[in-house]
Amino acid sequence: MILAQTPAKMSIMPDFLNPEHLLSGLGPAVVAVLCLILFAESSVFPVLPGDSLLFTAGLFIANGAIDAPLWLVCVLATGAAVIGNVVGYWIGWKAGPRLFNRPDSRFFKREYADKTHQFLVKHGPKAVVLARFVPFVRTFITWLAGIGRMDPRKYLTYTVLGGILWAAGIIVLGAMLGNITFIKDNVDAIFILIVLVSVVPIALEYVKGRRSRKPAAGAAAGETEH
Asked: To the nearest whole percent, how much of the chain has pLDDT over 70?
């Protein structure tokens, strides 16, 4: 796998988080480094440019800067993302009881775990998939799923689906669209838009839930008065 130079303007991020810089000059190790970064962001380290990194990888493959088959990079990247989510879930599963069972804890209470569990029971599959496209959230949702004791089989099913849509999907988009000048020069803005679109369904569900609770609370208050 040979990584060549590419003139593309890829990111407004600082160099240490710039996807083009992260994937440049690595030679045969480039795919391994890509997978390591995806694993870290999917499990324990949220401050990484996963979306634009995947898009850049697709662009580099299309340009021949990464000398590896598109399908192989998609499979490896998806695997790294899924394994990362499984590790994050395991961390939440193991650490959750220790955090929430502490009687003198100000920030970690059992009720928080119960609310997390209720949220994931109602929105779990949708949340796990959509969270893939939201920076920071895609890391934390894995811990919350473990803390909230989301059904492991259901979690694995939807984390695989989310991993395919996110990792393989964005790499393919980069390979197909990355050479379009407007897209190539506005990668960050495009992914901000993707984040906003991904958050909309969750925000609507939250507003809907708030509205449905208000009439119920009013009715309960009326019954109490009578």
From this structure: 62
